[in-house]
């Protein structure tokens, strides 16, 4: 189970938007991976639907906080 979210790069500063989301998510207890301006999610295969919904909501809130 893998997901990727590509973010629009800040002009002239590639990778800064995704790194900001990474920092915000980490401060809120969520560990994600970033490569450039792409967020990579790879939760365990035993994740429940409720946990997926929580993960998506927390990532959405971190992205919204940075954007």
Give a written overview of the molecule.
The longest helix has 18 residues, at 49-66. The model has no long low-confidence stretch (mean pLDDT 94). This protein has 67 residues and is α+β, with helices and mostly antiparallel strands. The protein has a 3-stranded antiparallel sheet, with helices on one face. Strand 2 (33-35) and strand 3 form a beta hairpin. Helix 1 packs across helix 2. It has helices at residues 16-27, 49-66, and strands spanning 3-6, 33-35, 38-41.
Comma- or semicolon-separated keywords:
alpha+beta, single chain, 67 residues, 2 helices, 3 strands, globular
Give the secondary structure arrangement, pairings included.
Layout lengths: L2 E4 L9 H12 L5 E3 L2 E4 L7 H18 L1
Helix pairs in contact: 1-2
Structural class: alpha+beta
| Main pleated sheet | 3 strands, antiparallel
Q: Outline, from the CA principal axes?
A: globular
**In what range is the share of β-strand residues?**
15-25%
- Portion in helices: 40-55%
The Cα radius of gyration reads 12 Å
Q: Spatial order of the strands in the main sheet?
A: 1-3-2
Give the gist of this structure.
The protein has 67 residues and is α+β, with helices and mostly antiparallel strands. Helix content is 45%, strand content 16%. Strand 2 and strand 3 form a beta hairpin.
């Amino acid at each position: 189970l893998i997901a990727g979210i590509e973010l629009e790069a800040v002009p002239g500063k590639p990778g800064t938007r995704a790194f900001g989301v990474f920092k915000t998510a980490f401060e809120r207890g969520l560990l994600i991976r970033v490569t450039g301006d792409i967020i990579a999610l790879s939760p365990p295969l035993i994740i429940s639907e409720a946990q997926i919904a929580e993960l998506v909501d927390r990532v959405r809130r971190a992205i919204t906080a940075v954007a």
